[in-house]
């Protein structure tokens, strides 16, 4: 089968409260990653799997996206990352969960696929394998950003699991992101909305109270339980690839797992004989 296609995402949706500069920054980064992938595919110097690894490493290195540096924090304030990769035509795959020192979890997932007899390693065993393979490791602190610590603090105060980027409409702070620091609000039954703008003002109108519903847009939930595994490393749930397509889901991991979404999408294509369309879906 000739030809290629590439899709890059940094999670579902755009938080309307995210200051415009940061939205633009995120789009620039995604565009850069996409262009990097396109250039590599055009040059034919790398395989499709190499390109996936290359591009995801780039996203992992940027704290703007919730993978690698800037990952969502567990309730303990630590980072437990996960990643997966799949070579569709060969039906090979590799995944990791619960890694806390591996700078680029996607590369470890690749090594699980290429250099281990298994498809999926987690926690201590994955870390051990990382050291055997000589991948770059860093302190857990490397992944933790000031912004995420603040989000965790608010999530804990509300005793909720939170996706900072995809709040239900009634949860959005009325500051409307005029302040650079503002991109997060939270509330529960007792606490009205708060935001991280420097004034940290309390919003008027108790009617704005509501439940924070955890929903992830990119690879992790803030204040998740330690040990929680999302859809991202689960082949068939968050990730799947075959000779027709590659699927990478984003959204609430628990729902995606229950729906085995990625495999379903591939199966629909397979059973209906669908093909990828040549089109650009962007912003
Ligand atoms: N969709 C990513 C997660 O729930 O962890």
UniProtKB/TrEMBL annotation:
<comment type="subunit">
    <text>Heterotetramer of two alpha and two beta chains arranged as a dimer of alpha/beta heterodimers.</text>
</comment>
<protein>
    <submittedName>
        <fullName>Uncharacterized protein</fullName>
    </submittedName>
</protein>
<dbReference type="Pfam" id="PF01112">
    <property type="entry name" value="Asparaginase_2"/>
</dbReference>
<feature type="binding site">
    <location>
        <begin position="228"/>
        <end position="231"/>
    </location>
    <ligand>
        <name>substrate</name>
    </ligand>
</feature>
<feature type="binding site">
    <location>
        <begin position="250"/>
        <end position="253"/>
    </location>
    <ligand>
        <name>substrate</name>
    </ligand>
</feature>
<dbReference type="InterPro" id="IPR000246">
    <property type="entry name" value="Peptidase_T2"/>
</dbReference>
<dbReference type="InterPro" id="IPR029055">
    <property type="entry name" value="Ntn_hydrolases_N"/>
</dbReference>
<dbReference type="GO" id="GO:0016787">
    <property type="term" value="F:hydrolase activity"/>
</dbReference>
């Amino acid at each position: 089968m000739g030809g290629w296609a590439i899709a890059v995402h940094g999670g579902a949706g755009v938080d309307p409260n995210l200051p415009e500069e940061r939205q633009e920054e995120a789009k620039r980064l995604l565009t850069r990653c996409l262009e990097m992938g396109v250039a590599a595919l055009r040059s034919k110097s790398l395989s499709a799997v190499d390109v996936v690894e290359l591009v995801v490493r780039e996203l992992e290195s940027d704290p703007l996206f919730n993978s690698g540096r800037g990952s969502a924090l567990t309730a303990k304030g630590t980072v437990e990352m996960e990643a997966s990769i799949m070579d569709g035509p060969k039906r090979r795959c590799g995944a990791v969960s619960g890694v806390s020192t591996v700078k680029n979890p996607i590369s470890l997932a690749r090594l699980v696929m290429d250099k281990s007899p298994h498809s999926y390693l987690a926690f201590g065993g994955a870390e051990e394998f990382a050291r055997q393979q000589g991948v770059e490791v860093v302190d857990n602190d490397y992944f933790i950003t000031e912004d995420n610590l603040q989000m965790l603090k608010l999530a804990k105060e509300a005793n909720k699991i939170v996706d900072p980027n995809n709040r239900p409409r009634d949860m959005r702070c009325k500051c409307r992101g005029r302040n650079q620091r503002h991109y997060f609000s939270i509330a529960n039954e007792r606490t009205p909305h708060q935001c991280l703008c420097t004034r940290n003002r309390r919003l008027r109108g108790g009617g704005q109270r509501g439940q924070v519903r955890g929903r992830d847009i990119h690879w992790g939930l803030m204040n998740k339980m330690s040990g929680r595994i999302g859809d991202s490393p689960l082949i068939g749930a968050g990730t799947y690839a075959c000779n027709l397509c590659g699927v990478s889901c984003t959204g609430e991991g628990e729902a995606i797992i229950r729906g085995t979404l990625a495999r379903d999408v591939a199966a629909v294509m397979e059973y209906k004989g669908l093909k990828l369309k040549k089109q650009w879906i962007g912003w």
